[in-house]
Amino acid sequence: MRSNPHNILILGAVTLLNGLATEQTIDFQRVISPLLSDNCYSCHGPDSENREAELRLDIQSAAHESPIVPGDPKMSEFIARITNTDPEEQMPPPDSEKTLKPTDIELMRRWVSEGANHEKHWSFEPPHHHDPPQPSKTNLETNPIDAFVLDTLENTSPTASKAVNTA
Question: What are 129-147's pLDDT values in tens digits?
């Protein structure tokens, strides 16, 4: 049986989309924010001098005022614009030399379907105190950092290396 390049591409696309369909909730900070930053924020971000259509996509409250309907990509102007092929309506505009790949568009559609959450970057969240765990498989005196490391080691089942003779 000969391999047809088109069949391989189709199989790859189906596999990718199937993987997307079975993934957990899309992480805004790791997946969506970089796409918006690379393709949208230059015109719809924090810079009021360059902002187009008085639209901000970098702030959840502003993005949800009209272009994004959380949970409903079919009613979201945002999705309509990034999927539009009319050069007058398409976002990003063709003259911006920015393009979204079909997989990027599908990720954004899923993100809107999931509620279009804009989680804050972890550095903007207040710190939380966590008591160190009590590793069960050791009788060593440990400092708090070692306790976290040992707990992780116990939960992931690797084995510790033996001590090396330095003599």
Answer: 888 888 776 666 678 888 8
- DSSP class per residue in 140-165: S---HHHHHHHHHHHHH---PPPPP-
Q: What is the C-alpha to C-alpha distance for residues 91 and 23, in angstroms, rounded to an integer?
A: 26
The whole-angstrom separation of Cα 38 and Cα 46 is: 13
Query: Considering the entire predicted model, what is its pTM?
Result: 0.62
What CA–CA distances, in Å, run from 60 to 4, 65, 85, 112, 113? Answer: 45, 9, 26, 12, 15
Per-position DSSP letters for 32-54, written without gaps between them:
IHHHHHHHTHHHHSS-TTT-STT
Nearest of 23, 4, 43 to residue 114 by alpha carbon: 23
Tokens of 124: 């903007």
Rounded to whole angstroms, what are the CA distances from 131 to 128, 139, 144, 147, 152? 10, 18, 8, 10, 14
Separation between Cα atoms, residue 11 and residue 164, nearest integer Å: 50
- Note the pLDDT tens digit of each residue in 24-65: 899 999 999 999 999 999 999 999 898 888 889 988 888 888
Q: Which residues have C-beta within 8 Å of that of residue 89, sequence separation ≥ 6?
A: 80, 81
Q: For tokens 């939960």, what's the residue? A: 155
